[in-house]
Design a protein that fits this description.
The chain is α/β, with parallel strands linked by helices. Helix content is 24%, strand content 19%. Strands 1-6-5-4 form a four-stranded mixed β-sheet, with helices on one face. Strands 3-2-16 form a three-stranded mixed β-sheet, with helices on one face. It is globular, with a radius of gyration of 18 Å. The N terminus is likely disordered. The protein binds arginine. Arginine binds next to loops.
Length: 298
């Protein structure tokens, strides 16, 4: 009798995709809107985003990212208004993509489209069971040397998915517990940066999680955000080497990053913030995290 196959799927016996340059995937906001409320930011913003402004802001981010990385594109689909936040649909490392099982049916419609794109591009797919929700780079981020995965639970992603996801790369995983519904994804309160730095908002985590973070990152490597900065999506940044791309934050956060050697490009991303996300959630990393964050002295 055939036993059920493991979670890995590959289209052929072809070599896994390999990148020499940091590479990301983006999805244009063709059908983007706030059509429902699945996070506190969306409440009060139903149908508020302007599609024209969203397009302008997205194109600006796309161009800025193209300066420092290769950017591939996924076609947007009608009926999946949050598909623009493509970072939540998977986590990719070493050519293996752990694909998401979204918690809300509204976002589950995105799954087959990204799955197909990744499969056609030659990635090995590692499925995550529906019973244990998992929301990709929204809740799981590799550190700068790629040997350690940080994964969050508490709102969208189930804790039980963490070990399963980490097994895709036989990597070490540390679970973090999110306790503030405004920071419903890890990418809203935690960002490993090049040079071994960490951007984070302590108020989003329980005490045990904070201890784990503080044990892993020395005090001089931790850049703690204020509540105001965190609510202006200051952790939701894209980092490639010295470059940081982010939405507007009305404090000296950019200056604090520049003092540590980063080149910061801030840009308006207001339309996406009405849906609960900013720069990082608009780009899924396809190349290894080491290529974007590791081996870079800032
Ligand atoms: N509306 C999307 C959702 O709630 C927004 C995602 C953006 N979120 C983020 N983690 N930055 O799933």
């Amino acid at each position: 009798m055939m036993t059920s196959s493991p979670a890995l799927t590959s289209s052929a016996f072809a070599p896994l995709p390999h990148f020499n340059r940091p590479t990301f995937l983006m999805c244009p906001p063709e059908f983007y809107d706030v059509n429902y409320v699945i996070n506190p930011w969306m409440a009060g913003n139903l149908h508020q985003p302007s599609r024209d402004t969203a397009f302008m802001q997205w194109k600006n981010l796309y161009r800025q990212l193209q300066r420092v990385a290769d950017v591939r594109l996924l076609h947007a689909r009608e009926g999946s208004p949050d598909m623009v936040f493509v970072a939540h649909a998977a986590v990719v490392q070493h050519g293996v993509a752990a694909v998401s099982s979204f918690a809300h049916p509204q976002r589950q419609t995105e799954e087959p489209h990204l799955r197909k794109w990744l499969q056609d591009a030659g990635f090995l797919l590692w499925d995550t069971p529906r019973e244990t929700c998992f929301e990709g780079e929204g809740d799981a981020l590799f550190d700068a040397n790629g040997g350690h995965l940080w994964a969050a639970h508490g709102v969208r992603t189930c804790r039980h998915s963490h070990k399963h996801v980490a097994d895709a790369w036989h990597t070490r995983v540390t679970s973090l517990h999110l306790v503030d519904p405004r920071f419903y994804h890890l990418d809203l309160c935690f960002a490993p940066l090049a040079g071994g730095y960490l951007l984070y908002f302590p108020g989003a985590f329980d005490a045990a999680s904070l201890e784990k973070i503080e044990a892993a990152y020395e005090a001089d490597k931790r850049i703690a955000l204020s509540e105001l900065e965190a609510t202006q999506f200051g952790c939701n940044v894209i980092n490639v080497g010295r470059d940081i791309l982010m939405g507007l934050v009305e404090t000296d956060l950019a200056k604090r990053l520049m003092e540590r050697g980063f080149d910061v490009t801030e840009m308006p991303l207001s339309e996406f913030q009405q849906g609960g996300g900013s720069a990082k959630s608009l780009a899924l990393r396809l190349s290894d995290s080491e290529l974007a964050l590791g081996a870079v002295e800032v």
